[in-house]
């Protein structure tokens, strides 16, 4: 789970960008922290760069494929 220590620097948003799932290797739409829907691994990604590929980490069959969801949007 992403951590922070000063609530003055982070705020709640209901942007639809947080609802989107992104495939491994897809272009990162916004810089920020992304979480894998299958295993909860978190990574930082920069806008315009590819998200980590399918071989970034291993899943069990129950965890399915890697699907990245943005959980913190860096402005
Ligand atoms: Zn994962």
Layout: helices, strands, pairs:
Blueprint (H helix, E strand, L loop, with lengths): L20 E2 L9 E5 L5 E4 L22 E6 L2
Antiparallel strand pairs: 1-4, 2-3, 2-4
Provide a descriptive summary of the structure in words.
- The chain starts with 20 loop residues before the first strand and ends with a strand.
- By secondary structure, the protein is mainly β.
- The protein has a four-stranded antiparallel β-sheet, with no helix packed on it.
- Strand 2 and strand 3 (42-45) form a beta hairpin.
- The protein has one domain.
- It has strands at residues 21-22, 32-36, 42-45, 68-73.
- It is globular and about 40 Å long.
- It has no helices and four strands.
- 0% of the residues lie in helices and 23% in strands.
- Bound molecules: zinc ion.
- Zinc ion (ZN) binds at residues 36, 38-39, 41, 57, 59, 66.
Summarize the structure.
The chain has strands at residues 21-22, 32-36, 42-45, 68-73.
Bound molecules: zinc ion
Mean pLDDT score? 96
Helix content: under 10%
Biggest sheet layout = 4 strands, antiparallel
Residue runs with pLDDT of under 50 for 5 or more positions: none
E-strand count? 4
Rg computed from alpha carbons, rounded to a whole number of angstroms: 13 Å
Principal-axis shape equals globular
What sequence of helices (H) and strands (E) makes up the elements? EEEE
Distance, first to last CA: 20 Å
Write out the strand line-up for the largest beta sheet, numbering strands in chain order.
1-4-2-3
Report the β-strand fraction as a percent range. 15-25%
Please tally the helical runs, counting DSSP H or I stretches of 4 or more residues: 0
Total number of distinct structural domains? 1
Structural class: mainly beta
């Amino acid at each position: 789970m992403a951590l922070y220590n000063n609530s003055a620097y982070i705020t709640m948003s209901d942007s639809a960008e947080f609802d989107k799932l992104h495939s491994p290797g897809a272009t990162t739409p916004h810089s920020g922290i992304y979480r894998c829907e299958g295993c909860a691994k978190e990574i930082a990604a920069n806008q315009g760069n590819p998200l980590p590929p399918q071989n970034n980490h291993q899943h069990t069959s129950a965890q399915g494929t890697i699907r990245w969801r943005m959980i913190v949007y860096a402005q």
